[in-house]
Design a protein that fits this description.
The complex is a heterodimer of chains A (412) and B (305).
Chain A: H1 2-29, E1 43-45, E2 73-78, H2 85-106, E3 111-116, H3 121-133, E4 137-141, H4 146-159, E5 164-167, E6 182-184, H5 189-202, E7 207-212, H6 216-231, E8 235-240, H7 249-252, E9 261-264, H8 269-281, E10 287-290, E11 305-308, H9 320-329, H10 338-356, H11 363-371, E12 374-375, E13 384-385, E14 398-402, E15 408-410
Parallel strand pairs in A: 2-3, 2-4, 4-5, 5-6, 7-8, 7-9, 9-10, 10-11
Antiparallel strand pairs in A: 1-3, 11-14, 12-13, 14-15
Helix pairs in contact in A: 2-10, 3-4, 5-6, 10-11
Chain B: H1 2-32, H2 39-56, H3 67-94, H4 103-124, E1 129-130, H5 133-136, E2 142-145, E3 148-151, H6 152-174, H7 176-186, H8 188-193, H9 198-224, E4 226-227, H10 231-246, H11 251-271, H12 277-291
Antiparallel strand pairs in B: 1-4, 2-3
Helix pairs in contact in B: 1-6, 1-7, 1-9, 1-10, 1-11, 2-3, 2-4, 2-9, 2-10, 3-9, 6-7, 6-9, 7-9, 10-11, 10-12, 11-12
The chains are: A alpha/beta (412), B mainly alpha (305).
Chain lengths: 412, 305
């Protein structure tokens, strides 16, 4: 009897230890393990016509007549729900807006399939396979993050290298070279890291505290900025913290008194605001510089700087009317949106060019035409053409400073 | 010295929240000998209830009532919602399995945890919310302790946690229902034979433990700002660690464990690296489970002979 009771007691603790180990493994394996239970299945959506006719998309096919029959399905993968839903929601809206205005303008009836990857790599791979299995689909926009691009890209590359996917926000350097069908409408971290470091030095940075958020996006950027600053003899202190942490008070306490800048290459902007509040609480006066992942209304610390891979398009002549048209239908936008519009237009125009030659759009000929993209201007205020790998030929980052009223002023 | 003092305040704040959460784990384990893994989600709903009340009262920048009244009402709302969820969990997810094998309610608790996460996602969406506490209580307000300034919100959190823990201890030690809770904790069958309404005691235990978690949720919202539908997962694991370290089933142990985990996190970040924070905390959990499962203040389980 005693033996049985003791055994049961030990079994309970062993069970607890096993459950704990499982939980830790699950947390270690996934970017946001355990955060999603939503079905990964894509949703077929027919692009409805809209009343909006104000879009003035810049296009190399201006003046071209739509052909009688030009049909295609284009996919969209983004984090529509999950921790960074503020990115995916806006990206989906911009994709739908691009599709609606394109169909209306050209008289086409392109279809779309949306997939919510919840910023999760496993979901991204599953959605990529679903897109590949959809024979009507010729190309896709997304995923948003570099880790998710890696997951989806491996599936596309193995299944059909002719499948084109254009990421509107993945900035990790070198990633396009790994996947035949990958393109992007944003610049790379090779641009962002040095741009950030140069800007910090121009602002008189002598001692910089860098905290990455333990994602590959963040560590890559942090490494790049650290390398550039160290090479210029700027003192750098480096630390890291997980994305799901919301108390940074202990970390803030370790910011050296001599530090005059804090660099946060984070993807959860709300965490950046907490960090800023706790800096104020502890009397830390260093200025925060956030990466493009912090470019959100959740981060409003006055005096801070933000890097952005897209400009404020409201200040670009020719893009204002597109923005106005978008805002008639949707309430919310941020810098993650316009690159989606640009990516969608690249694909739509490529399909159109295929149709103009009398061919039926398929993955191979659409990819060939995407590769030939040569837009003299775009919603982003700059030309769009691609390098051999699929990067923007002329990519650059923009730096904004947050003002007291929360607005952002372009400073570089 | 300044850094040490600052980190001590940081650890004390975080530890106070963990202690309140750990109390729920410990109380439930004390009476039912099972771990309510959905407790972290109860805390999350408490945080959202507080946010809801703040919104109803006009939001942080346009409050219709004085700040102190708003915070009190937020605490009340969180306690009501959290205790309601806790009692519902007990009634529908755990009571039907009370006489099953010990693994059954454990699995039910894990399922309830994911159910509540998904429910919160549907109800509140994935966007995080902010209490904007610096708007309610300016960051510059507070007490100067030596070379550091302690924000009033941190003082509020620490004092509230201490008061609640003292009240709970008094209630368990001195009140009639508290004595019944202790009786059920010692021996459920014997307590029932002595006329204790065991079902009622268990419901009261869930009610009190969940209410404390709700308060913890509002505290986190006030002091750290961001609340979101997944905030209960890691916090729950850490509170569970606190309960184990202090001695699961022991109320003073839960308080001690919570504070120890809070200090461990703060000092690890300050003197080693924040990268090692979770490694140290969960390393402690594994070490205690293997070496001293009864924790610092827990009672070793007695085996019938």
């Amino acid at each position: 009897m005693k033996g049985r009771t003791t055994l049961r007691r030990h079994s309970t603790w062993r069970l607890l230890a096993a459950l704990l180990a499982l939980a830790l493994v699950a947390a270690a394996c996934g970017d946001d393990a355990g955060e999603s239970t939503t079905t990964a299945g894509g949703t077929d959506t027919t692009a409805g016509s809209t009343d909006t006719t104000e879009g003035e998309p810049t296009t190399t096919t201006e003046g071209a007549q739509p052909v009688d029959s030009c049909e295609a399905t284009v996919g969209f993968i983004g984090p529509i729900t999950g921790d960074v839903a503020f990115i995916g929601g806006v990206q989906l809206n911009w994709f739908n807006y691009a599709l609606d205005t394109w169909n209306e303008e050209m008289g086409y009836d392109f279809q779309m399939v949306e997939g919510d990857n919840q910023f999760d790599t496993a979901q991204s791979a599953t959605l990529a396979q679903q897109f590949l299995d959809n024979t009507a689909m010729v190309a896709a926009v997304g995923p948003a993050g570099s880790d998710q691009v890696d997951a989806a890209g491996a599936v596309y590359e193995a299944g059909d290298p002719n499948f084109t996917f254009i990421s509107p926000s993945s900035t990790r350097s070198g990633i396009t070279a790994q996947y035949t069908g990958m393109f992007r409408t944003v610049p790379t971290d090779d641009d962002q890291g040095p741009t950030t470091a140069d800007f910090l030095m121009a602002q008189g940075a002598e001692n910089v505290f860098i905290v990455d958020d333990q994602s590959s996006y963040s560590t890559g950027l942090a490494d790049s900025v650290e390398e550039n600053l160290t090479a210029a003899n700027v003192t750098v202190t480096r630390d890291s913290v997980a994305q799901d942490v919301t108390d940074f008070s202990a970390l803030v306490g370790t910011i050296p008194d001599e530090a005059n800048f804090v660099y946060l290459p984070w993807q959860v902007a709300a965490n950046g605001q907490i960090f800023a509040n706790q800096m104020t609480e502890q009397g830390k006066e260093a200025v925060i510089f956030g990466s493009d992942g912090m470019d959100s209304d959740d981060f409003t610390e006055a005096g801070s700087y933000i890097a952005a891979f897209a400009p404020d398009i409201s200040a670009i002549e020719g893009s204002q009317s597109i923005l106005d048209g978008y805002l008639e239908q949707y309430d919310d936008t941020n810098t993650f949106g316009p690159p989606v519009y640009a990516a969608a237009r690249v694909i739509f125009e490529a399909i159109d060019r295929v149709c103009q030659t009398g061919q039926t759009p398929d993955r191979a000929n659409v990819q060939a035409e995407v590769r030939n993209t040569d837009q003299a201007d775009s919603i982003l205020g700059s030309p769009i053409s691609f390098t051999e790998d699929g990067d923007l030929a002329e990519g650059r980052f923009f730096i904004f400073q947050i003002q007291e009223d929360g607005s952002k002023t372009l400073v570089e | 010295m300044e850094n040490f003092l600052q980190q001590t305040v940081n650890g004390l704040t975080l530890g106070s929240v963990y202690a309140l959460l750990a109390l729920g784990y410990s109380m439930v384990y004390g009476v039912l000998k099972f771990l309510n893994f959905a407790h972290g989600e109860v805390y999350m709903f408490g945080a959202f209830a507080g946010y809801g009340m703040l919104t109803v009262l006009g939001g942080p920048s346009a409050l219709l009532v004085p700040v102190w009244a708003a915070i009190m009402l937020m605490f009340v709302a969180s306690m009501v919602v959290a205790s309601g969820i806790g009692v519902a969990l007990e009634r529908f997810a755990y009571r039907p399995l009370r006489n099953s094998s010990r693994i059954a309610p454990l699995i039910s608790a894990v399922g309830a945890s994911f159910f509540l996460q998904a429910a919160a996602l549907l109800l509140f969406t994935a966007n995080s919310r902010s209490y904007e506490a610096p708007t309610l209580i300016p960051i510059e307000s507070g007490l100067t302790v030596g070379p550091i300034n302690v924000w009033m919100v941190r003082i509020l959190v620490i004092v509230t946690a201490v008061v609640l823990m003292i009240l709970l201890t008094w209630w368990v030690e001195r009140s009639k229902v508290g004595r019944a809770v202790r009786a059920v904790s010692y021996d459920r069958e014997a307590a029932a034979m002595m006329g204790v309404d065991v079902d009622r005691v268990i419901v009261v235990t869930f009610l009190i433990g969940s209410a404390l978690a709700g308060v913890g949720g509002v505290m986190v919202g006030l002091v750290f700002g961001r609340i979101f539908h997944l905030m209960g997962f890691v916090a729950g694991l850490k509170a569970f660690t606190a309960a184990v370290v202090g001695g699961i089933g022991s109320i003073p142990g839960a308080m001690l464990g919570g504070l120890l985990i809070g200090f461990a996190e703060a000092y690890t970040t300050a003197y080693i690296s924040s990268t090692f924070q979770n490694l140290i905390v969960f390393g402690l959990l594994i070490a205690f489970l293997l070496i001293r499962p009864s924790g610092f203040l827990g009672r070793p389980e007695l085996a019938k002979v």
